[in-house]
Amino acid sequence: MNSIADQSRRFPHWRQDLTASLVVFLVALPLCVGVAIASGVPAELGLVTGIVGGLVTGFLPGSSLQVSGPAAGLTVLVFGAVDQYGLPALGVIVLAAGVVQLVMGALRLGRWFRAISLSVVEGMLAGIGLVLIAGQLYSAAGLQAPASGIDKLTGLPGAAADALGSTGALTSLALGAGTVAVMVLWKRLPRRAQTVPGALAAVGLATAVTAAFGLSVATVRVSGLLDVIQPPGADAFGELVNVGLLGTIAAFTLIASAESLFSAAAVDRLHNGPRTEYDKELMAQGAGNTVCGVLGALPMTAVIVRSSANVAAGARTRASRVLHGVWLLLFAALLPSVLGLIPLPALAGILVHAGWKLIPFRSIVPLWRDHRGEALILVVTAVSIVAVNMFEGVLIGLALSVVKTAWDASHLGLEIVDKGAGPVQAHLTGNATFLRLPKILEGLEALPRDRPVELDLSGLHHLDHACRTALENWAERHSTTGSDPVKVTKPQKAGV
């Protein structure tokens, strides 16, 4: 009795954390497998990343309750990297991304990821969601998906026609659609029934139906956990001289870091416990990805689905996420053959559902109504990812965000007051930068040349060198037209 009491004092929340860890394990299991299959790698590698997310990242400080593992948001990028450079190079990419994350965390750059435009992040996730959904529709029908995102979308009508002519494809599609339906309807069941996660229930039902009716659909291919762990060799490290590979590493680093830290901010709003320390969390993610790279596994991020399940299940400390890694390890070690019973259309259905949730349908219309520039950035980022690729799409979104910020920062007002007699008054307010110079000169050059002008710059917050020079030149030219010299009231703030 005394030992139990001592244990309760040392670990006061062990019951809550134990229960939460089991819930997170059940949520993570089908997602780990599904993300791996969608990424074009063995299913066990998804479990390896989930295990590392629990046992390595879960131990480290940063965010106490968010859970890390393989994420649907990186499937498109991983699939492209494996297709272009091969599976051995994946370990090098993930390892390098992890090292970069460690360096950025040590340099205290984690907090700066909070400055990335939310529209870029939502556009990135929307683009990923569209490509993920399109790709998994092929998988649900048992068909081979095209390589590029745009080909996946444009090829869907032809794939639908092929599926309608095949009984096997229709059976496979029905199983995938049933999986999605179970996940959607599961949330409407009584709370007690929802103790079993919807994804696990959907996969379990699909597996049972497949076995009971002897459906001829593809299932997960299984090999031993140790067999799929392949640390990258010297040949794989030699690929680091490839500029394209370095760009892929940059994309992995940017997207994984942004997704993890935005997830941390979202999870912080779900509980009243300790707040996230962003630099430490970035280092924790870097440590996890470094280990995943050494093992040749999938990259990891913090995953909002697992994290919110962890909080909702009553987790209090990081012990819950560590234990979820323990349960994944035990499952992979003791019951790997169970994976071979899971039908691939069911995993495709889970990922279609996950991709749908990545698209911010509810926020697009209000965003367009109130902030059209931000809505445009979101849409352009998503379309660019589908039309070009992940890395360049995100860069396009970031560039648009910077341009919009610069444009907003150079907000300028030009008010002309002409009372019909006396001098014409021109008032400039806001920020006069070179971006607004055409507007300034267009307004000033339209003023009457035979009337005195008073140029009031006292309302300016900022006047850059280009504008100052242009205004001085304009005033000099206007003063030579035979009227009185332009009277200039200088900005009130020193240094403007």
UniProtKB/TrEMBL annotation:
It comes from Streptomyces violaceorubidus. The keyword Transmembrane helix applies. This is SulP family inorganic anion transporter. It is a multi-pass membrane protein. Signal peptide: none annotated. It comes from the Bacteria. InterPro entries: SLC26A/SulP_dom, SLC26A/SulP_fam. Keywords: Membrane, Transmembrane, Transmembrane helix. It holds the Pfam family Sulfate_transp. Residues 15-381 form the SLC26A/SulP transporter domain. Its main location: membrane. The keyword Transmembrane applies. It is found in: Membrane. The chain crosses the membrane at residues 20-38, 85-107, 119-143, 163-186, 198-220, 240-262, 326-356, 376-403.
